[in-house]
Design goal:
The structure holds 2 protein chains of 2 kinds. Chain A is an alpha+beta fold. Chain A is built from 11 helices and 22 strands. Classes of the chains: A alpha+beta, B mainly alpha. The structure holds adenosine-5'-triphosphate (ATP) and magnesium ion.
């Protein structure tokens, strides 16, 4: 049952449009890989190639040890949740769920039993007699999900399977999918636009942009050590602040100047070999740019800024401010009392800075791996952006993420 | 729920406004004068002894069920009715529709050059004037014609040996393009991801056609059957040009019999009565198809 999936130099070209470019990616056996990226970056195309619905223009695709470039979708033994659902409009929910099993010659009793189990898990029990046209968008999406889950394929391909569910149901289904993956460990490629799903469900996250794979890493690694400006800006909400800076070294010590201040680089961090003095892009996550009164002792840098917009989120507030001519976003505690036009002091821990090459956007700073509780807290807070996810993820322990008891607690 | 009944009349029901009759009146008058009137008049004529020439052409009278009684005793009429049903079921419903569907499916899966070449040939047959088609098949099936030589019976005239078969095949050959085009359009409009989903779920081609494609094509199939039945039920030119209803009455379908009764033997009343039977047969098939389309759609 455990099958590895491998893309080996895969390209997909539609006419003049390159949808996927030189994709090299291995999804480990039993892994839950989340695929994220902006609209039109080639996520669906990647899944379709893996399902056999689209032929790669170049390169090889392997499932298990088997080259599948020329294997028809029928014989690939993958189950796919289509972004558009693609339900059979002339069949009721029961027959939609049963179709795949029947096609594979399962016995009537087994089909009935599995349909019942799956429908119960997805809350479709009362809808079995309805046609897709008589269902709401979210109900249809659950049928689409059920049609895949009812099978035990070698690989699950899910194209935004929860995008149309309400917040509560999404949390519940997310937990359910995690639990199923716990149990059966079927290799899964999961496309989503939702940061919370990406951070909480994936063993690893693959970020794509413009048909190119940008980075594949565990969620925390991706968050703490983004490979380039694109990944840094794409993962995390609100978005990372990018401001121009200048790198200068003298007597073996390197310092960076930005937003009108200059600071030596943190002790744990190392510059990569390609880094040189001159223009750089400095990245600061909003949660690292704190309100001075709320900041800890390791936030040694202080910047003063003029508040522009205050967006209260309930458990915190996003403050957009103008600092040395740059617009920056910072996360404030909920009832700071700060108002627009006010001048405030922001605090920053120099160890939390990200540095990128000004031209190529590639990171030039190797930060120490997982900087203890501080990192985990910020990851946990990133998850809380989703209104529904906030309830249970706040007490995020690093190991708890993939332990079943945790997911049960959510539902 | 309990609220129904306490809230007054439902607002989401369709309501009839009498003033709309005024707006519809001009169209209604035209419909009655140009359509309903002639139809009812033809219906009336069918129960008279009106003739095209002679004394009955002026002082004809209502004869009640006399024409019906005459039909029931009319050997030619009975045979003609069976021939018509045979022609419609064999050539149109089974032949044209099944072959049209097969062609549409084959062409859908064919490479582009084949699709273009075969598609064009089939459509050319349809574009040809009926008289030309009649001539081609007349020549094709004569003694010494291509068909007899192909079958190794140089001296056999197949139009005399199996006239109904030859006429049906000629008709099928000409009209198959119509069904093929209808089905091709239907196949093209199927939601492609639904078919892909079936494929990913492991359904064989046979199962995909049986459980997904054909059910989704059901409305197209019914429309095709309706049109094809109605078009073929009144087919006259091709048959008449090839055989004039002969040999004997072997290819005298109802339209040809109507023509003969009304315009050759001048029995306009009786001819009209027979054409009413044609309408009945058409209505029967239409009802059948419409009912079939209603079921579990
Ligand atoms: N059949 C096709 N023909 C031509 N271009 C295509 C085709 N399918 C996809 N593309 C193009 O390939 C690119 C990638 O499309 P894809 O559907 O993979 O995006 P995506 O990442 O799934 O986006 P979204 O998040 O909006 O679903 C897009 O620019 C799209 O226009
Ligand atoms: Mg997509």
């Amino acid at each position: 049952m455990l099958s590895e999936v491998r893309f080996d130099g895969v390209h997909k070209i539609f006419g003049a449009e390159t949808a996927v470019e030189d994709l090299n990616l291995t999804v480990n056996a039993g892994e839950f890989l989340v695929l994220v990226g902006p609209s039109g970056c080639g996520k669906t195309t990647t899944l379709r190639m893996l399902a056999g619905l689209e032929r790669p223009s170049y390169g090889r695709i392997l499932i298990g040890d088997k080259l599948v470039n020329n294997v028809s979708p029928r014989f690939r033994d993958v189950a796919m949740v289509f972004q558009s659902y693609a339900l059979y409009p002339h069949m009721n929910v029961y027959d939609n769920l049963a179709f795949g099993m029947r096609a594979r010659g399962a016995s009537k009793d087994l089909v009935a039993q599995r349909v019942k189990e799956t429908a119960d898990v997805l809350g479709l029990g009362k809808l079995l007699k309805r046609r897709p046209s008589e269902l709401s968008g979210g109900q249809r999406q659950r049928v689409a999900l059920g049609r895949a889950l009812i099978r035990q394929p070698q690989v699950f391909l899910m194209d935004e399977p929860l995008s149309n569910l309400d917040a509560g149901l999404r949390v519940q289904m997310r937990a359910e999918l995690s639990r199923l993956h716990q149990r059966f460990r079927v290799t899964t490629v999961y496309v989503t636009h939702d940061q919370v799903e990406a951070m909480t469900m994936g063993d690893r996250i693959a970020v794509m942009n413009n048909g190119r794979l940008q980075q594949v890493d565990a969620p925390e690694t991706l968050y703490d050590n983004p490979a380039n400006v694109f990944v840094a800006g794409f993962i995390g909400s609100p978005r990372m602040n990018f401001v121009p800076g200048r790198l200068a070294s003298s007597d073996g010590r390197t310092s960076v100047a930005f937003l009108g201040i200059t600071t030596p680089l943190g002790t744990g961090s190392r510059l990569t070999a390609g880094a040189s003095d001159g223009e750089v892009t400095v990245g600061i996550r909003p949660e690292d740019l704190m309100w001075r009164p709320a900041a800890g002792p390791d936030c040694t840098l202080t910047l003063s800024a003029d508040v522009d917009v205050v967006e209260p989120m309930g458990h915190e507030a996003y403050v957009t401010a103008l600092c040395a001519g740059e617009t920056v976003t910072s996360r404030f505690p909920p009832r700071s009392g700060v108002r627009p036009q006010e001048r405030v002091d922001l605090a920053l821990n120099p160890a939390r800075l990200h540095l990128f090459d000004a031209q190529s956007g590639i990171t030039i700073l190797q930060r120490p791996p997982a900087a203890g509780a501080e990192t985990l807290r910020s990851v946990g807070e990133a998850r809380t952006n989703d209104s529904a996810g906030g309830r249970s993820e706040r007490h995020g322990q690093p190991e708890a993420r993939r332990v079943p008891s945790r997911t049960e607690e959510i539902s | 729920m309990a609220v129904v009944g306490t809230l007054g009349p439902r607002l989401d029901r369709e309501r009839f406004q009498w003033s709309s009759l005024l707006m519809l009146a001009p169209g209604l008058v035209l419909l009655v004068v140009l359509f309903l009137g002639p139809v009812l008049y033809a219906f009336y004529i069918g129960f008279t002894n009106l003739a095209l020439v002679g004394s009955r052409s002026r002082d004809y009278s209502f004869t009640g069920l006399e024409n019906v009684a005459r039909m029931l005793g009319d050997y030619v009429f009975i045979k003609s009715s069976w021939l018509t049903i045979l022609f419609v079921v064999g050539s149109a419903i089974v032949g044209q529709s099944v072959l049209g569907m097969l062609l549409a499916i084959l062409l859908r899966n064919a490479v582009v050059p084949i699709r273009i070449v075969v598609g064009s040939i089939v459509i050319v047959a349809w574009v040809l004037p009926e008289i030309t088609v009649a001539l081609i098949w007349y020549a094709f099936s004569q003694a010494g014609g291509t068909l007899s030589i192909l079958l190794g019976h140089g001296g056999t005239n197949f139009l005399v040996l199996v006239p109904m078969l030859i006429v049906s095949v000629a008709n099928l050959w000409r009209n198959v393009a119509f069904s093929m085009l209808v089905f091709s359009a239907g196949l093209r409009n199927l939601p492609s991801e639904v078919l892909e989903a079936a494929e990913v779920e492991g359904a064989s081609a046979w199962r995909r056609y049986r459980s997904v494609i054909l059910p989704l094509l059901r409305p197209t199939i019914v429309t095709n059957l309706l049109l094809v039945t109605i078009l073929n039920l009144s087919e006259f030119t091709l048959i008449y040009a090839m055989t004039q209803g002969g040999p004997g009455i072997e290819t005298t379908t109802l339209p040809i019999y109507v023509y003969q009764e009304a315009f050759v033997f001048h029995q306009l009343g009786y001819g009209t009565a027979i054409s009413l039977v044609l309408v009945l047969i058409g209505a029967f098939f239409s009802l059948l198809f419409v009912r079939a389309s209603r079921r579990q759609v």
